Amino acid sequence: MNTIYLDNAATTAVSPEVLQAMLPYFTEHYGNPSSVHATGRDARKAIEAARRQVAAAIGADPAEIYFTAGGSESDNWAIKGAAFMNRRKGNHIITTAIEHHAVLHTCGWLEKQGFEVTYLPVDAEGRVTPEQVEAAITDKTILITIMAANNEIGTLEPIAEIGKIAKAHKILFHTDAVQAVGAIPLDVKAMNIDMLSMSAHKFHGPKGIGVLYIRKGVRIDTLIHGGAQERGQRAGTENLAGIVGLGKAIEIATTDLPAKAARLSALRDRLIDGILERVPDVRVNGPREGRLPNNANVSVRYIEGESMLLRLDLAGIAASSGSACTSGSLDPSHVLLAIGLPHEVAHGSLRMTLGSETTEAEIDRVLEVLPGIISDLRSMSVLNKDTSTVTDEVFYHGKK
Fold it and tell me: Which of 190, 166, 207 is nearest to 82 (CA)?
């Protein structure tokens, strides 16, 4: 039985084209890019070519692209680096309650170092408003860090508007774009973004390689010391094959992006509408408009998400209940709690994220299997209509 893979927000398969681009850099062109001989120079040329590919994809200059080990490192570097470089100017950081833990935990750590952090609330669809951001600014604010798209419920945040506000107040603006790169158009110049994080394995590149874009003129502290790599900003021998793979992956992901997004959006809506039509007491988490093209997140009343995942897995369907980075936790999603869901509803969440290989037939198969799984689990659940404390207002049935 072939698995229907609907967990692309957690990770994606390395595409065949990306793998083919990477292979020579494991065996033939394996030089250290810092070496002065021909083999090293060949490796350096490959890295600089990938740097140009990344820059072209987000409207940046190649000199503004720094390779890292992934999105979490990029987030840490941007936030810690900006905080400590600007500590004499102020100690206040603005973020939101629904950020990835790579941002939230970093901000929490900085609070222990004497920084102050404002965690802005979001509305019922997971959005923060530019007005909220501007109202939170003080004369001590040195950084605003707000994600481009939420990894759990797919909400797109008003990044361009927030970037404009940050620029007007001369405050650094960082966005975690790990879920957004390759899914929606991004232009760091037009959006007034000072720093942007991405991770290759979210857009069919390899794991263990990411990027931090740092706008020219922005100075932040170094996170990893020990060498002159990445123009002295990030020590460590470069992940040559990974960098080549990232460059190829982002080039493919951002080619014909509107057409790809339209195809995924249609499949996503087919999935969401099909669930709402076939299953009662289900709500969509996140907006119907202004969400990632591939993201479908629903809460199913009276059952737990983990039970759905196990039953779907037995049926050959891979999905998740939230962020892969917190899958071992028994706590409900902080994102779902932040949009106002009670604990028992948050525990009944199901996230299905589509990818470039997802087909209409696969969506129809999910819609064939899922209602029966939910009905069966509800018949055995102690979270029934007689014991539930959740009001009907939390749920809606049909299109929003």
Answer: 166
Per-10-residue mean pLDDT of the chain, 400 residues long, equals 94 98 96 94 97 98 98 98 97 98 98 98 98 98 98 98 98 98 98 98 98 98 95 96 98 97 98 98 97 97 93 97 58 92 92 97 98 96 60 49
Contact (Cβ atoms closer than 8 angstroms) between residue 198 and residue 74: yes
**Do 275 and 370 contact (CB within 8 A), yes or no?**
yes
Tell me, yes or no, if 325 is annotated catalytic: yes
Give residue 381's pLDDT.
79
Q: Specify the CATH number for the domain of residue 55.
A: 3.40.640.10
- CB 6 within 8 Å of CB 354: yes
Nearest to 154 by CA among 276, 272, 247, 237: 272
The residue out of 209, 232, 253 marking a domain boundary is 253
* CA 262 to the chain's CA centroid: 19
Residue 354 lies in domain: 4-10+256-379
Question: What is the per-residue DSSP string for 336-395?
Answer: HHHTT--HHHHTTEEEEE--TT--HHHHHHHHHHHHHHHHHHHHH-S--TTT----GGG-
Q: Say which of 218, 325, 369, 394 is annotated catalytic.
A: 325
d(CA 333, CA 218): 34
CA 174 to chain CA mean position, Å: 14
69 vs 73: CA distance, rounded Å: 6
Q: Distances in Å between the alpha carbon of 282 and those of 76, 210, 369, 388?
A: 36, 36, 16, 14
- Is residue 386 a part of any domain in this protein? no
Per-residue confidence (pLDDT) for residue 398, from 0 to 100: 41
